[in-house]
Amino acid sequence: MPEKYQALLQKVNQIHDLEKAAQLLAWDRQVIMPQAGNEIRVQQMTTLRQLIHEMFTADEFGQLIADAAAETADYPYDSNEASLVRYLQDEYADRCKLPADFITRRAEISGRATPVWVQARQDNDFAAFQPWLEQVVELGQEMAGYYGYENDPYDALVDKFEKGITTAEVRALFDAQKEATLPLLNAIQEQGRPVDDALVNQHFPIDQQKAFAHYIAPFVGYDFDRGYLGTAVHPFASSFSRWDARITTRWYAHFLNPSLFGTLHESGHAIYEQGTHPDLARTPLARGTSSGIHESQSRMMENVVGRSWGFWQRHFPALRDHFPDQFNGVSARDFYRAVNKVKPSFIRVEADEVTYNLHIILRFELEQALISGDLAATDLPTAWNDKMQEMVGVTPPTDREGVLQDIHWTRPSFGYFPTYALGNLYAAQFHAAAVEQDPTIGEQLADGDATPLIAWLGDNIHQHGRKFTPGELVQRATGKPLSHRPFVRYLIEKFTDIYEL
Amino acid sequence: MPEKYQALLQKVNQIHDLEKAAQLLAWDRQVIMPQAGNEIRVQQMTTLRQLIHEMFTADEFGQLIADAAAETADYPYDSNEASLVRYLQDEYADRCKLPADFITRRAEISGRATPVWVQARQDNDFAAFQPWLEQVVELGQEMAGYYGYENDPYDALVDKFEKGITTAEVRALFDAQKEATLPLLNAIQEQGRPVDDALVNQHFPIDQQKAFAHYIAPFVGYDFDRGYLGTAVHPFASSFSRWDARITTRWYAHFLNPSLFGTLHESGHAIYEQGTHPDLARTPLARGTSSGIHESQSRMMENVVGRSWGFWQRHFPALRDHFPDQFNGVSARDFYRAVNKVKPSFIRVEADEVTYNLHIILRFELEQALISGDLAATDLPTAWNDKMQEMVGVTPPTDREGVLQDIHWTRPSFGYFPTYALGNLYAAQFHAAAVEQDPTIGEQLADGDATPLIAWLGDNIHQHGRKFTPGELVQRATGKPLSHRPFVRYLIEKFTDIYEL
User: Fold this and answer.
1) Which of A98, A123, A150 is the last residue of a domain?
2) Residue B464 lies inside a defined structural domain of this protein
3) Is residue B371 assigned to a domain?
4) For chain A: N or C, fewer Cβ within 10 A?
5) Which residue from A451, A74, A465 is spatially nearest to A473, judged by alpha carbons?
6) What is the pLDDT of residues A440-476, one digit of tens each?
7) CATH number of residue B230's parent domain
8) Is the predicted pLDDT of residue A45 greater than 90, yes or no?
9) What is the mean pLDDT of residues A201-220?
10) A37–B281: do the CB atoms touch at under 8 Å?
């Protein structure tokens, strides 16, 4: 290994270990820690974040990167060495733009805002959260200023989650997709054969839900020998290495979908991290390349696989074994239709595939307005409800079912929401390419076996970690740039069948 | 706050936060992490330990301590400021004696030895662990050399767990206690009314054991709002702040004692950390002052309180409610006698109060022999078994029930074992002093209420954290230096009653 590169790698490993320690502090805070521990935990997380920032933005580290870049200039573009250096150059430049005191404030405010949001959501009390949201928005505006932008401050923010994409590109994709699927939504609502989903709203003992989650996750590729399923109010996946990639789920005694599809969703995230190449371990390349690509993997397992007819044709008998009373007399087809019911609703994470992206477009537009200053935090609940009525056709009865439902705005992670909808577009495009490149993938999937698809994802996406940008990756894997069309085709084909249009 | 001291405190907070992050990596490794994650986890822990060592032993940190010491020279001895500076001066001197590469090797070897020991214990395969033990012993010898000693390298090691005590002092205490309690042991074996403990060896559903652990721990002062009960192969307590002090337990379906008394034991450790004064938070004073004093608190709750007649007179009905079939027709007195049965046995953590210290003295002697080089690792199983026969009167049928039973020698923590026996001595002395100072403490305890005793411990021990050395603390709290006599008196009084001597 070249000498300078080796010196760089050693430092990178050290910083990465600290990153993972900080991530464990965060994981533990959500899953295990008693609430009383929060104040000190936030300080611990802040200290680690500060230290990481100091180490990452030190002149000495910049020099190490520059030296290693010169030394590896002839390495192939897709080599681990060239890819790591490329990533670090970009990330170093980005991080150096943020002052140390900003990092500290950001960590402190976010750390404190999270439990306030948890309580505010529980109490349906937006006013309690509002002063914190205001601080978080200010952090977002300040951050956009540090990163810099030409016209739209939101450009600076979305780029941090989806490297290389612009607000205008996102808007174009969203508008095209919305327009192309609106006729489908209308057809479903006006002519579709009604779907009864009462069967997922029965009493499902939580222990049995847990047992089924442990049964089903391996069928979308999740390896429990390198993982752990915990409980969290707001489910997430987090990995400490490819050998320890964890998922969390929430359990409702009277609603099966959150735990079932939540588990499949987080499993999709986790298998991405479990599938990163071992040679990338202890480097920042050992993770998904962007939020959108990450979400494509979770949505792939939650929906493209996990809400497919083949999958339930195969696994419904096992589900019925776990809940014999609840599913007495229910057919696989009944269940399949129930979990694909299209119904405009309040909660993003429970939205069906046809309306889901509308929830995202709403957030995308509100975020832009908050960041540009066109919308004040105090007016957000009203704006939210108005837009819900206009776009989704329903008005949330409470803020808990409206503006308070997501954890995301406890951090200045503006620009993150759109990656959820991008994830759906990527997922459909990956799925279409995989099936086109190898028809047996589609045949096996129709038979409920996702193994060949998972292998394709492993080869084309997971193993590369963060070596390529999302744009590069989608081009390499599918031969085309991101488009809304595969997703539109996927929705029309699937829901034409389900609603017998 | 004086300026130099404030600068010191800021750095101390930062280092302490990293310590706690490292501790969480370790806690999680034992309680949550999938086995596959170990290799990378060890590297993460090593990185943190390295960084902490660098920061703690930096000349700049030494200067900060010296400056703050000069600035606070007039502060009262028992002030937080003077106590922190005193502790740091001592710790700084100690840590500077260990080279950075030694710290790294120690963390790596210990990290890797732990899962080997877990497997070796499971497989009853000492040979698999032996090469690791050899490395750990060499680390211990090397460490003693760095710390320095006059005659006995073991002096240098025991001092790290029980500041200020010497091997000779420990030996004198142990010999005196052994001699004074031998007649009791003989009397029990020869003239005692037999105790039947079959009732604790029935089937106890683990869920019910967990429920009872959650019921009983608060009665020895454990605050679940600032804690968490997890599961671990080798139970331990670990705190991330006084607001997040956790315990772990192991559960056997056919043996009640490990989970029941293990929970009380770890609760005793945890209430020490939960009871440290809030002003000590984010400093190294926010923990127990020594291993021996810490153990005194766990043994206090496990035995002095948790195996007392008053305690079970009060709580046996609740235990029977949890296990109505198992304890049908059993009286509180039957249970009390059963959990106090004296019987020479193989496993330290299950040993009764009369023979427990013999297990420790055995380890104390073997450790000294390993460190001095008089005993080779390969000869350890034989030496162990011979000594067990000689001292306790039994020979373990397997190494799993012998030399492989404890996790301690996966780290070079030689000098730690004796603190277990010292803990019993301290506990009896604290208990005697508390009852003497305030007779209602004893009266309430006889009635099963430990609250006044817990309050006394909070005032005299817990709140001080690590402000005083163990010698200072025992003198302040009891007015006397440590003696074996209160423990001997306690044993004789208690077991004369139980065995009707």
Assistant:
1) A150
2) yes
3) yes
4) N
5) A465
6) 999 999 999 999 999 999 999 999 999 999 999 999 9
7) 1.10.1370.30
8) yes
9) 98
10) no
CB atoms within 10 A of CB A242: 26
Tell me, yes or no, whether A190 and A72 share the same domain: no
Contacts of B40 in chain A (CB under 8 A): 240-241, 243-244, 281-282
Query: Of A66, A45, A47, A56, nearest to A15 (Cα)?
Result: A56
Distance CA A347, CA A397 (A): 11
Residue type for position A473: L
Range of the domain at B432: 167-498
Query: What average pLDDT does this structure show over B151-177?
Result: 95
Q: Is residue A41 one of the residues assigned to a domain?
A: yes
Task: Return phi, psi of residue A399, to 5°.
Answer: -70, -25
Residue pLDDT, tens place only, A377-394? 999 999 999 999 998 889
Element holding B248 (H helix, E strand): strand B244-249
Which residues from chain B sit within 8 angstroms of residue A240, using beta carbons? 33, 37, 40-41, 44
Looking at this predicted complex, what is its ipTM? 0.91
Contact yes or no for A40 and B13 at CB 8 A: no
* Residue whose C-alpha is closest to residue A486's, from A446, A422, A426: A426
Percentage of chain A beyond pLDDT 90 is: 95
Using a CB-CB cut-off of 8 Å, the residues of chain A touching B44 are: 17, 20-21, 240
Q: What is the pLDDT of residue A412?
A: 95
Higher pLDDT, A49 or B489: B489
Instruction: Look at residue B301 in the predicted model and tell me its pLDDT.
Output: 98
Point out the residue among B13, B37, B241 whose CB comes nearest to the CB of A240: B37
- Catalytic-residue membership of A134: no
User: Is 90 exceeded by the pLDDT of residue A341?
Assistant: yes
- Residues A487, A407 share a domain: yes
Nearest-by-Cβ selection for B37 from A25, A47, A241? A241
Is the pLDDT assigned to residue A350 strictly greater than 90?
no
The rounded distance, in Å, linking the Cα atoms of B4 and B261 is 46
